[in-house]
From TrEMBL:
CDD domains linked: Tryp_SPc
Compartment list: Secreted
SUPFAM superfamilies listed in its UniProt record: Trypsin-like serine proteases
One annotated GO molecular function: serine-type endopeptidase activity
Listed name of the protein: Trypsin-1
GO cellular component, one term: extracellular region
């Protein structure tokens, strides 16, 4: 996929990879990876989950918001219907099943209503799980923060994405990389015409160290207090000094996150009460099914806007 305004011929000639799409290795297109990283310790990022297609495996990362909700990038939720997805919490080595792992099916997608696929503005969404995640030392919710400033302005990205730009070879092991916070002016220069805005996005990365395909949707972490401040969104190629990584700034969307969860949960609760009052469990199942299908339909419509 090319940025709006760039011809397909130009993109083909320059081999530009838009890193806010899915990872090639196990999804249907290029995404975000860890360039210049090192292995993470088991349980170092207990809030990080692997978002997977049941048919093809890992495509994106996500952050556990609470036991029933995952925070991720909007662009991670258009490959299939929710029933085709699963979440793996406690993942470390992709080729091994760890005792700490939990595999949970997806109930529904909630994409920001103003998400723009071309500019990647408002690249944020929530995944509702069919059953709660059980928390323990290796699986915990992330602490959402709003401070991107540390003593040395260092941030951390982690994931199972590509380890070399343009090469469909993802990491088996969870990797992490420390990336410097960059001035908004750097991303304005690199992506300004595509709509980069510092109030809603974070600019980070340096030549040779970056997130890349397959890391999309995972959290950007404050290296000081270990709060999750951003969501891996996009970039041009990976690990290039002139094209830093762009991350969705979570704090800007705090009200949207809380309102979306509250509305979804209250709607489900209300319908359960109505179903019980009417004495029709079958109707309840039909209503929930219709609600889920409507959410998927809306997500598909927003993708086309």
């Amino acid at each position: 996929m090319c940025f709006k305004g760039l011809s397909s011929i130009f993109c083909a000639l320059t081999f530009l990879t838009i890193c806010h799409s899915f990872k090639v290795h196990r999804a249907a297109g290029p995404g975000i990876l860890i360039i210049g990283g090192s292995p993470a310790a088991r349980g170092e990022f207990p809030w990080l989950v692997s978002i997977q297609l049941k048919s093809r495996g890992h495509i994106c990362g996500g952050t556990i918001f609470n036991s029933e909700w995952i925070l991720t990038a909007a662009h991670c939720m258009f490959e299939d219907l929710p029933r085709g997805y699963q979440i793996v919490a406690g993942e470390h080595l992709r080729n091994e099943t760890d005792p700490s792992e939990q595999i949970v099916d997806v109930e529904g997608f909630f994409v920001h209503e103003s998400y723009d696929e071309d500019s990647a503005q408002n690249d944020i969404g929530l995944i509702r799980l069919k059953s709660p995640i059980n928390f323990h030392d290796f699986v915990k919710p992330g602490v959402i923060g709003d401070n991107t400033t540390t003593e040395e302005n260092q941030l951390i990205a982690a994931g199972w994405g590509y380890t070399q730009s343009g090469t469909p070879s993802s990491s088996i092991e969870l990797l992490k990389v420390t990336v410097p916070l960059r001035p908004n002016a750097d991303c304005d220069l690199a992506y300004g015409e595509f709509g980069y805005t510092g109030v809603k996005q974070i600019c980070a990365g340096i030549g040779g160290k970056d997130s890349c395909s397959g890391d999309s949707g995972g959290g950007l972490i404050n290296a000081g207090d270990k709060t999750v401040v951003g969501i891996v969104s996009y970039g041009i190629e990976c690990g290039l000094q002139v094209f830093p990584g762009v991350y969705t700034r979570i704090s800007y969307y705090h009200d949207w996150i809380m309102a979306t969860i509250s509305k979804a949960e209250s709607t489900t609760t209300t319908r359960r009460v109505e179903s019980t009052t009417n004495g029709s469990s079958d109707n309840m199942g039909n209503i929930i099914g219709l609600y889920t299908k409507l959410a998927v339909l809306l997500a598909s419509v927003f993708q086309l806007l």
